[in-house]
Design goal:
There is one protein chain. The protein is α+β, with helices and mostly antiparallel strands. The chain contains nine helices and twelve strands. It starts with a helix and ends in an 8-residue tail after the last helix.
Amino acid sequence: MRVLIYLFLLLVCASAQAATTPVPDWQSWVLRIDVVRADGTQELGSGVVIAPGRLITNCHVLRDASRITVARGDVHLAAHIASGDAYRDLCFLEVPELTAKAPEFAHPLSARVGLDVVAVGYSAGQFKVSSGRIKGLFTCACDGGRVIQTSAPFDPGASGGGLFDAQGRLLGVLTFKAVSGGNFHFAVPVGWMGVLDKLPLRQPVGQGSFWEDTSRASGYFLTACDLSANKEWPKLLTLARDWTRQEAANPQAWMTLGRAHLGLDQKEAAVSDFQHVLLLDSTHAEAQWELQKLELELGRDLLSAPDAVLNKSPELKP
């Protein structure tokens, strides 16, 4: 009976805590952006309030804009570009009549693989909130932050919206996704805003961003994600081998190698790759998940492998 009473009290306390936890005010933080281009065509996007009278959004949403308005319910407020960097695809909008309150920002280093996240934006013009987790963190030539891959889905129109942690803190700005869909949705990190805040536009808004060039020059991860989305496993394997040679301490390079080996049904090689990821980052939830699945298939313990196995780097073939 005492056990039952104790469990009941735990449930009551948990319910009371949940009831007092404030629900994030998503629709006050993330607003719709309506753009009329110079040729008369229209574009829909999203923006996140970062201060009274100021939003952050993607520069690609604002390309060739002749008029920009921010919609808050039935009210449309005039806006103009203040500053930003088209290559990083982050632009600041000034909205003089906007009095909305900004969300709290997450620490730039708080993003980690496996973290629960929420994507908020106006997919196809409709407000949408979706849940997922961080699937990967990628460096790029932009410096000063890692691009976030998430399983929280979003569609065109959500570009410029927010990626938040479970506490409602802003982690990044929703930016692009793979055409083929899947878990290939990406946000640029909130840390980049600190770099751009006092800069004028470093490139015209009409020019391309880092992610619109999927060549090797823009970073291995963009090419790797494109090949993964299209299941081009032999090409992905070649790329991943080169990537791990060039960035041997990068966990995502080894994750890509492991997924290429899995795609080619080379499970033992994949095991070695994923174990190497955990050697580099013991908290990497995606590597742990892949090894748990392989444990069931191969019928042996892979997460408690001896140090001798974990410290043996996977062999790279030319």
